[in-house]
Amino acid sequence: MQYHLRTASDADVPVLHALIRRSIHGLGTGDYTPAQIEAALTGAFGVDTALIRDGTYFVIEGAGGEIAACGGWSHRRTLFGSDNRAGRDEGSLDPATEPAKIRAFFVDPAHARRGLGRMLLERSEADARRAGFRALELMATLPGQRLYREYGFVAMGEVDHPLPGGLTIRFVPMRKEIGGADVPPRGA
Which of 75, 99, 159, 174 has the smallest set of CB atoms within 10 Å of its CB? Predict the structure, then answer.
């Protein structure tokens, strides 16, 4: 199947909400309970429209035009979470001293394991590098950390993020050094 990566738009938001729900229900059930998944969908997982406004969030469409995956990067301080997550910080990062954030990667289970996450990571890393960032960081889900580790990210421990209803969900903070703007992308 052929895929096409493009910048996400506001018109994609309703479809992205449904994709994120399908993704975490289909790909996260081996690592999280149904109760954790539902609670995380109230803020920890979801659409961050600041990324769309910034033009740093992407979707991958299948041959039929359906959105098969989404993800991006950010020059803002917020590390993870949707528009509904408390504690967001829209302040800008200093590319010379702070890492860009890799954000909100979700793949439709029907399109999993076809290189879509890697396609999103390569685009995000290249764009962040062009913006002058020398490192990337992210907050990985347990199933997502496998992809990030293969792509050169290093885990920095684990955290249990509080969720509504007294639940928690385990995430893995990860980081990758990418060099400066003058460093060519991988494979170039």
Answer: 159
